[in-house]
Write a structure and sequence with these properties.
heterodimer, A: alpha/beta, 38% helix, B: 73% helix, 3% strand
């Protein structure tokens, strides 16, 4: 059986300090669940479930008033905890669901969680707003018929850069992986799977099923490039770019779109070779204490107006056609948020290819760093 | 004297057991038991995505002992030793200064040493990043001086300086060592202080009276007497430095990978807990060795206190 790995991570560390606190403070998150049900008297909703919901989300990944409005609409209190990456989410769930009702894994982790039997099938009858989704998101390779996951956002990895420091538009992975032109000003994602697969993409191969024979080539390329790389960042590339520590960085489009609002000199490009597409999805983990509230919440997030509010805050591309129709041109025409069609055409979803591959890619990166 | 101390608890055995059971239970439930589980994992392998089968294999240790990981371990050790050395070099004079300060200012000085503990490590590390980054406080200050110097030279018709090039202070091994020293220094100063505080001043006076210079007094009287403090300071600095992952993660560059970073990745991104467990225990064996070494430096018997 071919195995390949996967796992992207990413995400919206808007203010990296707080985000990192969320990351390391993650340990504290689980503790709060121990208190469920014993510290306060239980308030039941009309559906017989306790009127609350534990939502496990990325940082800066929800509208400003979304949770408050949901409470006003349904009486359900949403308790949102944050994770910093999919690995943390997976690590938290693998020993048993500590009480989450809705989680937001990225597509490859949707597969991984499904294979590990950690998420449950959705009841589409309870999610009428599903029809708001754009057709291409209503059924996808990694989850045909959307039995387990509802798309919340999609995103692509690409190159964020400071325009005044570039010679032309850096529209190839070459400038990150295989060139000393921006020596000492390059930031790469500290993510073995992404680095290996994007390097494969640069070398003309698909991001899926990267052949064994290509791995030594990729390793040698990164070892060569290492002296030019300033930092392997923890998904805070946009902050490093904004602060001037680096001038060109591998990051997600939404993250760069956020800082572009603060600094006109920043821009984002999807390289001509194409890239990895990711999609963060809403899922209900096995053992969710309040599955009905979870469905209501997912349905609520798919509402056109609610979806538009969220997109206005987080600046990630939305798969929600009805919400998109409500968005201003500044969002819909934003080239960072919506990369050009021809670049998207050569881009692909990654695939979860098995845990052996994960180990293999991780060791490759370890060797690169130790070289 | 020893009997006097031991008798009471011997008589009040019930009380002693009652008081001790809490900590022992805590130690067992929250330290030894989890440690035993991780130790068990180190002899297992991952099956599927979430199962770990403990089958007594040594494959993880064999993997951990390959040159790649040993070289990372050695490098981490070098980082930790350099950090500890710098802490000792900086911490010793500081501890001595506090010891010899006036009693009323001593409390304040100690408070200053402990003050950083009131702030989370992560926040302190981010603060350090703000200081060191390309447009951080150090570079802004240096740039300011440089530009003023340049203007003065222009005014004096001496030509002008090249534009200021910010120093690369962040994302390299220098930043990692600086960060580690910054974090670990209090752990060095406090045991040194407590050792030196108990030191009999008349011995110093005797040494000076008998004609030894200050340096000779320092190295032949103070250092040997403070040796237990030095040993415990070295230990509590060395071990956490060896296991540091946050500092190299945030302050380091592509070349700053330490063993704890590799371990962290096994538990997260690589999802290989058994291998991560084996690496952890490898580190722990090194730590035990360090503790054994320390006990060799600590004089036996009741001289202390």
């Amino acid at each position: 059986m071919p195995e390949v790995p996967p796992l992207p991570r990413r995400r919206p560390h808007r203010r990296s300090l707080l985000a990192a606190l969320g990351a390391s403070g993650a340990a504290a998150v689980g503790l709060s669940f121990g208190l469920d049900g014993c510290s306060e008297k239980v308030r039941l909703g009309a559906n017989g479930e306790e009127a609350k919901l534990n939502f496990y989300n990325w940082d800066t990944y929800i509208g400003k008033d979304t949770l408050k409005n949901f409470r006003a609409a349904t009486g359900v209190d949403v308790n949102m905890s944050l994770f910093a990456n999919n690995d943390e989410l997976f690590a938290k769930l693998r020993a048993g669901n500590p009480g989450f009702d809705v989680i937001v894994p990225t597509n490859e982790f949707v597969t991984r969680l499904r294979v590990a039997d950690l998420i449950q099938p959705l009841d589409h009858a309870k999610i009428p707003n599903f029809r708001n989704l754009l057709p291409e998101f209503q059924s996808v390779v990694f989850d045909p018929g959307r039995r387990y996951s509802i798309p919340y956002t999609w995103l692509v990895l690409g190159i964020g850069y400071r325009k005044s420091k570039m010679q032309g538009v850096p529209d190839s992975w070459k400038w990150l992986f295989d060139s000393d032109r921006y020596k000492g000003r390059i930031g790469l994602f500290d993510e073995a799977d992404d680095l290996v697969r994007l390097a494969a993409k640069y070398l003309g191969h698909s991001v899926r099923n990267v052949p064994e024979s290509l791995l030594p080539v990729i390793e040698a390329m990164y070892i060569r490039q290492k002296k030019n790389i300033r930092v392997f960042h923890e998904d805070n590339g946009q902050d490093l770019l904004l602060s001037g520590d680096i001038d060109i960085v591998l990051e997600y489009n939404g993250d760069i779109a956020q800082v572009m609002q603060e600094d006109d000199d920043l821009d984002f490009v999807v390289p001509k070779e194409g890239t990895l597409i990711n999609s963060d999805c809403l899922c209900i983990p096995r053992g969710a204490p309040r599955p009905d509230n979870a469905h209501r919440f997912i349905n609520y997030l798919l509402d056109a107006k609610v979806g538009a509010d969220i997109s206005n805050t987080i600046m990630y591309p939305t798969p929600n056609g009805a919400a998109l129709a409500l968005m201003p041109d500044s969002y819909r025409q934003n080239r960072a948020i919506f990369p050009p069609k021809d670049r998207m055409a050569v881009s692909e979803y990654g695939d979860f290819e098995g845990v052996e591959r994960t180990h293999q890619f991780d060791e490759l990166l370890t060797r690169v760093k130790a070289a | 004297m020893a009997e006097n101390v031991e008798e009471p608890w011997f008589r009040a055995r019930g009380m002693f057991a009652a008081l001790l059971s809490g900590p022992v239970l805590f130690l067992f439930a929250f330290l030894l038991a989890p440690l035993a589980i991780i130790w068990g994992y180190s002899f297992g392998h991952t099956q599927g995505l979430k199962e770990i089968v403990v089958d007594g294999t040594f494959a993880n240790y064999a993997h951990a002992l390959n040159p790649l990981y040993l070289s990372i371990l050695v490098k981490s050790f070098v980082f930790a030793v350099v950090t500890t050395g710098l802490c000792l070099l900086i911490g010793f004079p500081v501890a001595m200064a506090i010891t010899f300060a006036k009693p009323q200012s001593r409390a304040w000085l100690l408070l200053l040493i402990m003050l950083p503990f009131w702030t989370n490590l992560l926040i302190r590390t981010y603060a350090l990043m703000a200081v060191l980054r390309t447009q951080g406080y150090v570079n802004v200050f240096l740039g300011f001086l440089w530009n003023n110097l340049s203007q003065i030279m222009v005014a004096a018709h001496l030509g002008h300086l090249a534009p200021f090039q910010p120093l690369d202070l962040l994302y390299n091994n220098f930043a990692v060592i600086l960060g580690l020293v910054y974090v670990q220094l209090p752990f060095m100063v406090l045991p040194l202080y407590s050792a030196m505080d108990r030191l009999d001043r008349s011995l110093l006076e005797a040494s000076l009276d008998l004609g030894a210079g200050h340096l000779r007094t320092l190295f032949q009287i103070v250092v040997p007497l403070a040796m237990p403090g030095i040993a415990s300071g070295v230990l509590v600095t060395l071990i956490p430095s060896l296991g540091a992952f946050l500092t190299p993660d945030l302050l380091g560059g592509g070349d700053s990978q330490m063993i704890a970073n590799v371990i962290e990745r096994q538990f997260k991104a690589a999802n290989d807990w058994p291998f991560g467990a084996a690496l952890s225990f490898l580190l722990m064996y090194v730590t035990f060795a360090a503790i054994a070494l320390q006990s060799m430096f600590t004089p036996k018997g009741g001289r202390r206190g």
